[in-house]
Amino acid sequence: MSNKHKILDAILEQGMLPLFYQDSEAGSVEILRTLYNSGVRVFEYTNRGKSALPNFKKLKEIRDAEMPDLYLGIGTIKTPADAHAFIDAGTDFIVAPIVNPAVAEIANKIGMLWIPGCMTPTEISVAQEHKAMLIKIFPANILGPEFISSIKDLFAGQLFMPTGGVEIDADNLKTWFKAGVCAVGMGSKLISKDVMSKGLYEELAENTKLALDLIKQSK
């Protein structure tokens, strides 16, 4: 089995892809450790600030030393230059908020999992043309579970993951999985501004375990 398929299977098994960005290197490391110790084995750091690349390199160093069974990916990759920079830094997979065929080509050439963000059926079709195995539905809080229910038959067999506004709530999660998603992206609803600014790592650990448990019940 290729690494691409192993990572995809890990996302499907976990049912959740946590994601965040923080300027602080030390804070980013503590959040990564907290997520890992709470059961997370696939994680996305997001390229949303000036410290993203150096912080990612530090996270990769920590992952290699302490968490060899963790898949560490990079999100918010919109350009080929960003893709090359983080591939060189050792990312395991790439997540994007858009469909950029040039980024898809880079990932496909090296057999790397590329998860593009889509908002319309046309974008989904373009993503499929560029071999997207998993498609991020973004922003999920705007589109809602009804969007998945409405389009899933048009794209039979395609795997979808909503990101943006997914709640740590049994009813919310059940609605998404019933609509036909295979996993959910979990950002600020899990790793909130308070968690990052106040170092609320015990709260993060509790919420991560709760989210993973609720997702198991919802799938």
Question: What characteristics describe this protein?
Answer:
three-stranded parallel sheet; 51% helix; 219 residues; 9 strands; TIM Barrel; alpha/beta
Give me the secondary-structure topology.
Layout: H1 3-14, E1 16-20, H2 25-37, E2 42-46, H3 52-66, E3 71-75, H4 80-88, E4 93-95, H5 101-109, E5 113-115, E6 117-118, H6 121-129, E7 134-137, H7 140-143, H8 145-151, E8 159-162, H9 170-179, E9 184-186, H10 193-198, H11 201-218
Parallel strand pairs: 1-2, 1-9, 2-3, 4-5, 6-7, 7-8
GO molecular function: lyase activity
Keywords: Carbohydrate metabolism, Lyase
InterPro entries: Aldlse_KDPG_KHG, Aldolase_TIM
Describe this structure in words.
GO terms for molecular function: lyase activity. It comes from Pedobacter paludis. Pfam families: Aldolase. Homotrimer. Pathway: Carbohydrate acid metabolism. The protein has 219 residues and is of the alpha/beta class. It has one domain: Aldolase class I (TIM Barrel), CATH 3.20.20.70. It is 51% helix and 16% strand. It is built from eleven helices and nine strands. It has helices at 3-14, 25-37, 52-66, 80-88, 101-109, 121-129, 140-143, 145-151, 170-179, 193-198, 201-218, and strands at 16-20, 42-46, 71-75, 93-95, 113-115, 117-118, 134-137, 159-162, 184-186. The protein has a four-stranded parallel sheet, sandwiched between helices. A three-stranded parallel sheet has the order 6-7-8. Strand 2 (42-46), helix 3 and strand 3 (71-75) form a beta-alpha-beta unit. It is globular, with a radius of gyration of 16 Å. 40% of the residues are buried. The model has no long low-confidence stretch (mean pLDDT 97).
